[in-house]
Amino acid sequence: MVRSLSRKISQLYDDTLAPSGLKGTQFSLLAQARVRRGQEPLSVSALAQRLNTDRTTMTRNLRTLEQAGLIALVPGKDARSRCVVLTPDGDARYRQALGLWKQAQAEVRALCGGDQIAALEQLVGQLLPRLAHVQEVA
Questions:
Q1: Domain count of the chain?
Q2: Is residue 2 situated within a structural domain?
Q3: CA quadruple 98, 101, 105, 108: dihedral, nearest 10
Q4: What is the structure's pLDDT at 135?
Q5: Beta carbons of 55 and 49 less than 8 angstroms apart
Q6: What is the DSSP string of the chain?
Q7: How far apart are CA 47 and CA 64, in angstroms?
Q8: Are 58 and 66 in contact (CB under 8 A)?
Q9: What pTM was estimated for this model as a whole?
């Protein structure tokens, strides 16, 4: 049931974001890169950890955004690491999609109700740390 709900909500976000040319996962990556503007950029590994995604999946998702010119992967402090930087085109696409993202958020909130969303967020906040040992399959 949880997996079905996850897929349905992901599809709702993807459908709502479609006019921007982004999927929900791509918007989330651009948002994380944008938050870091003016700060040291996040490494690919740190970004994967922040979004609870394995590094292989993260690298594949970032490659698509890099090929589209929306992010750049630059050398990190450690020569072996690469960091994610939002490009001007990526920032423009993020801003274009932000209203659509908010629309999807509002639709989910309306479908579930504010109290249910708050309860779900609390439950997810409790469960994610307990599941930290589980490795995502790429």
A1: 1
A2: no
A3: 160
A4: 67
A5: no
A6: -HHHHHHHHHHHHHHHHGGGT--HHHHHHHHHHHHTTTSPPPBHHHHHHHTT--HHHHHHHHHHHHHTTSEEEEE-SSTT-EEEEE-HHHHHHHHHHHHHHHHHHHHHHHHH-HHHHHHHHHHHHHHHHHTTTPPPP-
A7: 15
A8: no
A9: 0.85
What residue has token string 């955004």? 65
Q: How many whole angstroms separate alpha carbon 70 and alpha carbon 135? A: 28
Average pLDDT over residues 64-91: 93
Average pLDDT over residues 6-35: 95
Tokens of 43: 């490494």
Q: Say if residue 136's pLDDT is above 80.
A: no
Task: Enumerate residues 6+ apart whose C-beta is below 8 A from 83.
Answer: 40, 41, 42, 43, 44, 73, 74, 75, 76
Instruction: Read off the CATH number of the domain in which 121 is found.
Output: 1.10.10.10
Q: 90 pLDDT exceeds 70?
A: yes
pLDDT for the residue numbered 75: 92
Provide the domain limits for residue 85.
11-130
